Amino acid sequence: MPDQNTEVIVARLAILSDDIGEVRSVMKELAQSVAKLALIEERQTQANEALSRAFKSIDKIDMKLSAIESRVATIERDIPLHKQSSTWVFSALWAAAGAAVLMIVKKVGVI
Description:
The protein has one helix at 2-108. The protein is mainly α. The chain crosses the membrane at residues 87-105. Keywords: Membrane, Transmembrane, Transmembrane helix.
C-alpha cells in the first residue's frame, strides 16, 4: 500500500511539474507580449506628442495668416486714397514746373 501511495504521489508530482513548466512558458510569452505592448504604447505616445506639436505649429501659422490678411485688407482699402494722393502730387509738380517755365520765359522776355 505505501508503494501505491508513493507511486500516486510521484505521478501527481510529475503532472504538477509538467503543469508548472507550461505555466512558465506561458508566463514567458505573456512577458514578451507585455513588453511589445509597452513598446507600442510608447510609440503611440510619441506619435500623439508629434501631432500635438504639429497642431500647435498650424495654430501659430493660422494666427500669422490672419494678421497678414488683416494687413492686406487695410492696404487694399487704402489703395484708392494713395492713388488720389499720387495724382495730386504729380499735378502739383506739373503746376510747379509750368510756373517755373513761365517765370523763366518772362525773365528771358519771350512773353
